Amino acid sequence: MLYPQEFDVIVVGGGHAGTEAALAAARMGAKTLLLSHNIETLGQMSCNPSIGGIGKGHLVKEVDALGGAMALATDESGIQFRILNSSKGPAVRATRAQADRILYKAAIRRMLENQPNLWLFQQAVDDLMVEGDRVVGACTQAGIRFRSRTVVLTAGTFLDGKIHVGLNNYAGGRAGDPPAVSLSARLKELKLPQGRLKTGTPPRIDGRTIDFSQCIEQPGDGVANQTENGARSAGVLGEVPVFSYMGGASMHPQHMPCWITHTNQRTHDIIRSGFDRSPMFTGKIEGVGPRYCPSVEDKINRFADKDSHQIFLEPEGLTTHEYYPNGISTSLPFDIQYELVRSMKGLENAHIIRPGYAIEYDYFDPRELKRSFETRAIGGLFFAGQINGTTGYEEAAAQGLFAGINAALQCRSLAGAANDFGGAWTPGRDQAYLGVLVDDLTTKGVTEPYRMFTSRAEFRLQLREDNADMRLTELGREMGLVDDARWDAFSRKRDAVSRETERLKSIWVNPRNLSVAEAERVLGRAIDREYNLADLLRRPDVSYQGLMSLDDAKHQNQELVDALVGDEVSRETTRAVIEQIEIAAKYSGYIDRQRDEVARAANYENLQLPEDLDYNQVTALSFEVRQRLSRQRPETLGQASRLSGITPAAISLLLIHLKRSR
Ligand code: FAD
Q1: Which of 12, 283, 288, 444, by CA, is between 20 and 30 Å from 625?
Q2: What is the per-residue pLDDT for 348?
Q3: Are residues 409 and 511 in the same domain?
Q4: Could you report the per-residue pLDDT of 598-619, keeping only the tens digit for each?
């Protein structure tokens, strides 16, 4: 049957990429259909129920700044929140939350069901409808054909998925879900270049069988923990962290601690004794696994000299006893899993609820995507999430949002509507981690599952978690992604930052009016001339609060003082305003230098390479370079410069050729 209604955007897959893609396209006004295997698994976390971490938290904040769902769903379901790297510089500080798996899924489903312009439909997609070189819809298992202008494919680990436990294996998309076999075959027919990757998950443990008295408690930040003698002590930071710019700690349902235990020599011996029945070491698994999230057998094999590894026991939710032992992802046979778990302190009597397993799946070479994530081969078909060779919910969500935006923009162009973004939005590497992610994938491709790190971003000083809204919310509003409530809150914050920054520049502190004791208390030492407050704030040991205490009546900003005792949102915003002002002052030298670097690089970064450029005519380039450029067809000179094997000298020669041929 041909479904009677047509859509602008069809999103296939309701995981982290698919849900953000569908929500983003619908927010932008595109008539959107989300087709997924099972409505009950929308927003399902396939592995551990945790969101964020270093680099990943940055992506979540960016998704949030563009009106996405992940951060708010985490605030609604989070049971432990921490700021990682809290003692380091602001560029590498990152939020990480443990979520209640069921509440997270419920929050995502509620957002999907209440999103105008979005329709949900439960059914496996077996085929894509293609006419000429354009996709025109998707066909489900039951033969229902849905027509659309664009399709965003976010099938995650499901394409030809194969699950391994020891030497046993069977077809599956993840434990308990079917694989997408027909769709995988269809994509192969369409000659989209693909490979195999693998990932894994640990056995889950019944918390009632864990002896927590043998483990180390790890409370969330800002939450009291139970010390050995029963007394309560404060967590690392005074405040409970919040993920969304529109969130508040009162949204968190309840806080729970995580726990720490360790592997030991016996654990390692047990693991080694299973190597001969490991699908990884016996060649049953062909796909490459994530280097930064390796299985425990991989760790023991690679780091043979280490006699212990830290294992976090993380609660899966408030209404379950299930615990996720983070650090022992494994596909070893079940008898080995049973022994290795019970060899650790506190887990001597542990009952495993679900065995660990590895999964192998198809992914598609992201170098065959345009910088908008539209496939080069088939117009209107976009790929996002794990299917592009990445790993992680956050990487998937960011890509989903991105592909959803670009599918919706393409629909606007096809409908002849004005489009300030030239048909696609492609953030720069200096603008967002999302820009780094998209550029890395489309330029370099992947050889192993790709995850985000702060070290991947050369301009990380300006790509911080704390300023993702300052970098992106205005753009999000222009594209139609940001609703009025978020826009109002953002505008208030932005205006407050600029007003307060100007005010600090206009207030001068004269050494004659400053006692030695006060100068030492607030500034660390006396001053020999007049300084304004903005200049003083640049000093490493001077804080905003300290400056305000110099002379209450004169220095305090009554508007901010009032907000700090106001409602939760006003308090969060005010803290964020002060944080912005402090960071901008303290790091202004470095940030200015980075801005200069960006400006210099921009000369060729965004220089478009003609689509019909015949690299064989650029005879000054070596044969290998010409071949590589012809094969990968970078869209800009900046992208060309990051291809492996392309030297700065080759870029200069290409630039000369472009100038001559203009
Ligand atoms: P998924 O979350 O996989 O969602 C895919 C969605 O598409 C599902 O809703 C599915 O039902 C639907 N779908 C698929 N095919 C079809 C079809 N033909 N028709 C209709 N619907 C379809 N990440 C980490 O960062 N660290 C880890 O340690 C880690 N371990 C993992 C272990 C396992 C066993 C698994 C399965 C995943 C693991 N991940 C891990 C990866 C993480 O789960 C993914 O990166 C993330 O979920 C990807 O999001 P996605 O939206 O791309 O795909």
Answers
A1: 288
A2: 98
A3: no
A4: 887 777 788 889 988 999 888 8
Report whether 370 belongs to an annotated binding site.
Answer: no
Residue 176 lies in a domain: yes
Is pTM, for the whole model, over 0.95? Answer: no
Does 356 have pLDDT greater than 50?
Answer: yes
Decide if 594 is inside a domain.
Answer: yes
CATH code, domain carrying 646: 1.10.150.570
Confirm whether residue 298 is marked as ligand binding: yes
CA-proximal residue: ligand 1, atom 29 (nearest): 47
Q: CB atoms < 10 A from the CB of 499, how many? A: 14
The three state secondary structure string of 161-211 is CEEEECCEEEECCECCECCEHHHHHHHHHCCCCEEEEEEEECCEEEHHHCC
Verify that 171 and 131 share a domain, yes or no.
Answer: yes
The answer to whether residues 407 and 303 belong to one domain is no
Among 173, 154, 155, 153, residue whose Cα is nearest residue 163: 173
List the CATH number of the domain containing 258. 2.40.30.260
How far is the centre of ligand 1, averaged over its atoms, from the C-alpha of 171 (Å)? 15
**Domain termination residue (choose one: 556, 588, 603):** 603
Q: Which of 109-118, 237-246, 446-455 has the highest mean pLDDT?
A: 109-118
C-beta 12 within 6 A of ligand 1: yes
Give me ligand 1 centre to Cα 41, in Å.
Answer: 11
Do residue 386 and residue 517 come from a single domain? no
**Which domain-ending residue is among 603, 626, 652?**
603
> Is the Cβ–Cβ distance between 26 and 115 less than 8 Å?
yes
pLDDT of residue 400: 98
Q: Is the pLDDT of residue 560 over 80?
A: no
Mutate which of 20, 36, 187, 362 for ligand 1? The one with the most ligand atoms within 8 Å of its CB, which is 36
What backbone torsions phi and psi does residue 368 show, to the nearest 5 degrees?
A: -90, 10
The answer to the question of whether 204 is labelled as a binding residue is no
Is the beta carbon of 56 within 6 A of some atom in ligand 1?
Answer: no
Query: Do 17 and 144 belong to one domain?
Result: yes
Task: Give me the pLDDT at residue 287, please.
Answer: 80
State whether 37 and 130 are in the same domain: yes
| Whether residue 241 has its Cβ less than 6 Å from ligand 1 | no
- List the domain range (segments joined by +) for residue 265: 204-226+233-359
Cβ of 18 below 6 Å from ligand 1: yes
- Considering its fold, how many domains does the chain have in total? 4
333 in the same domain as 468: no
Residue 146 token pair: 């849905």
Q: What is the pLDDT of residue 338?
A: 97
156 in contact with ligand 1, CB cutoff 6 A: yes
The answer, yes or no, to whether any atom of ligand 1 lies below 6 A from the CB of 201, is: yes
- The answer as to whether 50 is a domain residue is no
Residues belonging to the chain: 662
With beta carbons less than 8 A apart as the criterion, state whether 329 and 295 touch.
Answer: yes
264: β partners? none
Is residue 337 domain-shared with residue 432, that is, in the same domain?
no
Q: Is residue 300 a known part of a binding site?
A: yes
Q: Is 218's C-beta closer than 6 angstroms to any atom of ligand 1?
A: no
Distance of alpha carbon 39 from alpha carbon 19, whole angstroms: 11
Please indicate whether residue 13, judged by its CB atom, sits closer than 6 Å to ligand 1. yes
